[in-house]
Amino acid sequence: MGHVFISYARADREYAVKLAQMLEDVGLSIWLDDRIAPGSHFDETIESALDSAEKVVVIWSASSVKSQWVRAEAGEGLRRGVLIPVAVDLSKIPLEFRRVQALDFSRWSGLADAPEFRSLERYLRSSSPVSSKLSADPRDEASDVRAELVSADRYHGNLRIRIHTGERSYRLDHEGLGRNQVLRLDGKIVAEGGGLFQLEDYFRCEKVAPGIELLELSVHGNAFRGIDHFAVRLNGRSVLTSALPLSRGMEVVIAVSVIFGIATIVGIELVLATFGKGTAAWWLIPAGSLLLLFAWHFRRRRR
User: Parallel, antiparallel, or unpaired for β 55-60 and 146-153?
Assistant: First the structure.
């Protein structure tokens, strides 16, 4: 591929030189204006390098947003569809360039394996126009980071989710209810947890695989209904939220349970009011039926 032109303000020179060196270390050809040969015409040399650049990286900062040189160079990259904006702080980008989403480097660690740098490298190596493809979130490896639900068994607490990081895909499995919850990534246990009756758990895993700096899973429900809904966050961004509907059979079970519960209360009141406390044992009939219903439900759910 051709060279990458980096546009920056003088105040950001140290930052631009460091970024250029790191990009060269991964095999990219970089052009900076500090490499203009003595005796060359400054403006003509810059114009020639800009015209022949395959990609134009503009470093937006508090200084560069005020620079007419940087704006002009960014404008040429925008016109040709090869502009890749990099925002190093929270300064407001000039209006004409805001429709091209900038890669957020304001929290970049300065390391080559950080998500921000990997995203930039990937876009620079791309052979297609990039200005319209840049992501709003620097932590999620651009728009390639996503997740999808493959299968779910709410009554046993089992979820299978496919995670895509842009570099590769992973299988995420949540297994179990109550105290016996396990979270696996490609078959490897990465977290365990759980409560006795309530299924209100939050799993957080850091640096568990390439492209996954932070993986978060929250599940909600209880031991009777199983999982009601869950949410997945990847590298700080929400990638999947889903509610699991009750099955028709479960809706019937809940409806019958409510009816039997009401019948139990009414039965107790009628027996006590009619015959007195001496025959209060009659309430065991509807209560026993309710217990049998619960036992049948749990036996069916654990098969």
Answer: unpaired
Q: Is 141 exposed, middle or buried (0-12, 13-18, 19+ CB in 10 A)?
A: buried
Read off the DSSP letter of residue 32.
Answer: -
Same domain for 12 and 136?
yes
Q: Residue 273 and residue 241: Cα distance in Å, rounded? A: 51
Which domain CATH number covers 169?
2.40.128
Contact by Cβ (8 Å): 282, 267: yes
CA distances from 26 to 82, 118, 122, 126, 215 (A): 20, 10, 11, 14, 27
Residues 186-224 as b/e (b if ≥16 CB within 10 A, e otherwise) read eeeebbeebeeeebebebebeebbebbbebbbebebebb
Contact 230/217 with Cβ under 8 angstroms? yes
pTM: 0.46
Please check whether residues 188 and 274 belong to one and the same domain: no
Reported as a single tens digit per residue, the pLDDT across 75-119 is: 999 988 899 999 998 888 888 888 787 888 988 889 998 888 998
